[in-house]
Inverse folding.
């Protein structure tokens, strides 16, 4: 997956988890929780959806790597390079 | 006259039934003979017959709240919000720590557990795909807790597991907590999401107690000779209850006063009802109300259209109400099926407008009355107008042998 595809994949997951949110103006370099109503249960949902959709495992110690779209790309790119 | 601080009244009603999402719509459907039973797709079994509600969850919930919570919670929120609005209580400025939520449920967790098992079946039963939402969705206080989260209520909340006697049990619990002074407002009633698990249908089918009929609207037929079982339904009904002095002080509308109630146990069988204990339950509720059976104008029966269950209830009714010339009987499940944890609360609500309009809604689908279910003044085929309705007795019972009765008086 390209970086843009990864961002799109994460946003698609968030669209399901946070269906009331307008995702059209999400900034890549700003923490998702600073822009959207997301709590710890939502982040667990993101981790679960990455596991279900792409077979990607995110250990608990790495949850912080999913803070923003940019950090998601940096963290997920190696894991999704063949997807 | 009893102290007004010791009298409990109904000042708001919120409901969703398969044939109406407000009391007015529900009552109109009952008077017009409108059923809410439709074909319903269920996992593994294909089409079954069920009573399905059409309320708008997004009227009071965000999409995320609906996704994270349960159907029972969503129904409970809708009904509680509707009831609170109907009561015209100034809820915004009301002390939320003095509000309690008491909801009867037949069961909870089957829907959510079945969904998760199906979910992990798509991943070779690897439990790492089991949702972290499972526990908060399946704790037994779930539906009542969702109401407190949605409405910002900080008083007590819990559900009352009482099989199909649960709707009445929720109302009774609310009344008792008001009498104890634990709360000033009780949101009390019952909810059911049971149609969203195949298990409830499959279990009734295995028991030989699941209704079938070519015409869904005719499938639920209590007291009919050809009845062949239960139509499962979802639904909810929540009452705003408060003490009479509290209600009068704020000029609240009053639907009726809860003047008697009782819950007892058969202690005889897991499934089959026991007429003797049912008789005791009704008589004790009447005694608590200070009434004789001849005072009751309307008995809202529990009958679910099982061959044996209907007969047992009718034996009990004929015994308690022998020679009561002005007591009428009807059945709401003939319209909407069996709304499980919501049934008792919904069935009571559908009869309360009789206090004002003098009409007793009828029982549909009795084409050939079973002689063993014959009752004097069983209202069939069309509503019956009477001179006045002052007392309604609401009957419910459930598996493991639990009976619940609520008596409501016109105020």
């Amino acid at each position: 997956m390209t970086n843009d595809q990864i961002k799109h994949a994460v946003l698609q997951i968030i669209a399901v988890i946070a269906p009331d949110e307008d995702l059209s103006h999400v900034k890549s370099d700003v923490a998702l929780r600073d822009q959207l109503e997301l709590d710890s249960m939502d982040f667990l949902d993101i981790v679960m959806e990455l596991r279900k959709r792409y077979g990607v495992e995110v250990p608990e110690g790495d949850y912080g790597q999913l803070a923003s779209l940019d950090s998601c790309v940096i963290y997920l790119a190696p894991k999704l390079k063949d997807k | 006259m009893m102290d007004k601080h010791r009298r409990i009244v109904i000042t708001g009603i919120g409901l969703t039934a398969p044939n109406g999402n407000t009391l007015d719509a529900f009552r109109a459907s009952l008077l017009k003979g409108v059923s809410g039973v439709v074909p319903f797709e269920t996992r593994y079994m294909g089409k079954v017959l069920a009573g399905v509600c059409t309320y708008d969850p997004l009227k009071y919930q965000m999409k995320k709240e609906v996704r994270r919570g349960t159907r029972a919670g969503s129904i409970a929120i809708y009904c509680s919000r509707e009831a609170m609005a109907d009561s015209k209580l100034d809820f915004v400025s009301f002390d939320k720590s003095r509000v309690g939520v008491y909801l009867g449920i037949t069961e909870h967790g089957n829907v959510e557990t079945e969904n998760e098992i199906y979910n992990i079946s798509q991943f070779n039963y690897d439990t790492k795909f089991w949702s972290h939402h499972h526990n908060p969705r399946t704790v037994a206080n779930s539906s009542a807790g969702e109401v407190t989260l949605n409405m910002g209520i900080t008083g007590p909340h819990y559900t009352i597991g009482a099989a199909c006697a649960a709707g009445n049990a929720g109302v009774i619990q609310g009344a008792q907590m008001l009498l104890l002074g634990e709360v000033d407002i009780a949101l009390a009633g019952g909810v059911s999401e049971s149609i969203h698990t195949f298990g409830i249908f499959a279990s009734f089918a295995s028991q030989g107690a699941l209704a079938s009929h070519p015409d869904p609207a005719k499938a639920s037929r209590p007291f009919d000779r050809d009845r062949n079982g239960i139509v499962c339904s979802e639904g909810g009904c929540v009452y705003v209850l408060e003490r009479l002095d509290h209600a009068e002080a704020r000029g609240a509308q009053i639907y009726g006063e809860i003047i008697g109630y009782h819950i007892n146990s058969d202690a005889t069988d897991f499934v089959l009802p026991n007429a003797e204990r049912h008789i005791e339950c009704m008589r004790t509720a009447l005694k608590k109300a200070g009434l004789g059976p001849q005072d009751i104008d309307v008995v809202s029966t529990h009958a679910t259209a099982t061959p044996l269950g209907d007969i047992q209830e009718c034996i009990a009714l004929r015994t308690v109400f022998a020679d009561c010339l002005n007591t009428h009987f009807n059945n709401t499940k003939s319209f909407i099926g069996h709304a499980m944890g919501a049934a008792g609360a919904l069935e009571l609500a559908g009869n309360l407008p009789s206090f004002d309009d003098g009409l007793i809604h009828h029982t549909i689908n009795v084409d050939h009355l079973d002689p063993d279910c014959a009752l004097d003044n069983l209202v069939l085929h069309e509503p019956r107008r009477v001179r006045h309705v002052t007392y309604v007795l609401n009957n419910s019972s459930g598996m493991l042998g639990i009976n619940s009765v609520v008596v409501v008086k016109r105020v």
User: Anything to note?
Assistant: The radius of gyration of chain A is 12 Å. Chain A has one domain: 3-80. The interface with chain B takes residues 17-20, 37, 41, 44-45, 48, 51-52 of chain A (CB under 8 Å).
